[in-house]
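C-alpha cells for chain A. Residues wanted.
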C-alpha cells in the first residue's frame, strides 16, 4: 500500500496498485481472466471485432481481448500509471499494431467525439465508471461508443444503505499514513472475516487473510481488489434498476445481468439493436 496511491485530493491512484499487481502476473491468472470473459461474451463477440477498454487498469482484460483476436483494440485510462501498466502488457504481446494504449478520460468530450467517428462492436468498462466523479455522464458517453449491433459490458458498485459510511472509510484511507493504511486494511479484513465466519464460509476467510497469495475469480488479486476498494475515490453507486432504466432510455437491450451485494458490483451486458454484430448469448 504505497504512499503514492493518493494522487490528487479525492482521487485514488489505481495505477500504482496495478503496477504492483503485474509484478506477480502469471499465466494462471491470465487464464482465469480469459475464462471469465469467455463465459460472459464468448469468443465470437471479440474475434474480428473493434473493442475499446475504458479504464484499462492493469491491462489484463485488454490482453485477453488481444489474445482473442480483436481486429482493433483501444485501451485508455485517466491514470498515467495504469496506462504504463497496460503498455507493459502491450509490449509483452510484441507491440501489436492493432492494439493501442493511451491516456484519456471517458469524460473528455473531445476524446469521446474522436472515438465515436468509428464506433465499437464491444465497449468494456469494468469497475471504472463509478470512479469518474460523474458516473451517469460516463455511462452516457460509453453508450455513445457502441456500434449498431454492438455490446456494452459494465460493472458498477451496488447501491445500498451503507454508502455514506463506506465513503467516509475511503476518505480516511486516502488521508492515512502508510502505517494507518495498513491498520485500516487489517481492520477491514478482520471485519469481513467475522462476517464470513457467521455464514460458515471458511475458505473465503483463508483467501482474505492470505489475500496476497489468492486470486479473485476474474484473475485479479484479492489483495489488490481490497486496496482498490478501500482507496477508490471518487465513489458513486447505482441500483440495478436505475442502470437498466437509464440504458433502456438510450435504446439498449439488457442481455445478461449478475447482481451483487453492497460493496461489490452489479454486472451488466447490454446490446444496441442493429445488424453489424449481434449477441447470440452464452
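Reply:
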Amino acid at each position: 500500500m504505497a504512499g503514492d496511491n493518493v494522487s490528487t485530493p479525492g482521487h485514488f491512484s489505481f495505477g500504482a496498485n496495478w503496477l504492483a499487481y503485474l509484478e506477480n502476473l502469471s499465466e494462471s491468472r491470465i487464464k482465469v481472466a480469459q475464462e471469465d470473459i469467455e463465459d460472459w461474451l464468448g469468443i465470437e463477440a471479440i474475434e474480428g471485432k473493434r473493442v475499446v477498454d475504458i479504464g484499462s487498469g492493469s491491462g489484463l482484460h485488454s490482453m485477453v481481448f488481444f489474445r482473442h483476436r480483436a481486429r482493433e483494440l483501444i485501451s485508455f485510462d485517466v491514470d498515467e500509471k495504469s496506462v504504463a501498466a497496460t503498455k507493459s502488457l502491450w509490449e509483452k504481446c510484441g507491440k501489436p499494431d492493432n492494439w493501442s494504449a493511451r491516456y484519456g478520460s471517458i469524460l473528455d468530450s473531445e476524446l469521446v467525439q474522436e472515438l465515436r467517428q468509428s464506433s465499437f462492436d464491444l465497449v468494456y468498462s469494468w469497475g471504472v465508471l463509478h470512479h469518474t466523479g460523474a458516473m451517469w455522464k460516463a455511462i452516457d458517453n460509453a453508450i455513445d461508443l457502441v456500434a449498431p449491433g454492438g455490446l456494452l459490458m459494465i460493472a458498477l458498485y451496488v447501491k445500498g444503505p451503507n454508502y455514506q459510511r463506506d465513503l467516509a472509510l475511503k476518505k480516511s484511507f486516502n488521508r492515512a499514513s502508510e502505517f494507518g493504511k495498513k491498520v485500516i486494511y487489517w481492520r477491514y479484513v478482520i471485519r469481513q472475516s467475522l462476517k464470513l465466519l457467521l455464514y460458515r464460509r471458511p475458505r473465503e476467510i483463508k483467501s482474505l487473510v492470505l489475500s496476497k497469495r489468492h486470486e479473485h475469480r476474474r484473475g485479479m488479486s484479492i489483495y489488490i481488489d481490497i486496496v482498490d476498494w478501500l482507496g477508490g475515490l471518487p465513489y458513486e453507486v447505482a441500483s440495478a434498476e436505475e442502470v437498466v432504466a437509464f440504458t433502456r432510455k438510450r435504446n439498449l437491450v439488457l442481455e445478461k445481468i449478475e447482481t451483487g451485494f453492497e460493496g461489490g458490483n452489479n454486472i451488466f451486458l447490454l446490446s444496441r439493436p442493429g445488424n453489424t454484430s449481434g449477441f447470440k448469448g452464452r
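The longest helix spans residues 178-198. The two ends are 38 Å apart (CA to CA).
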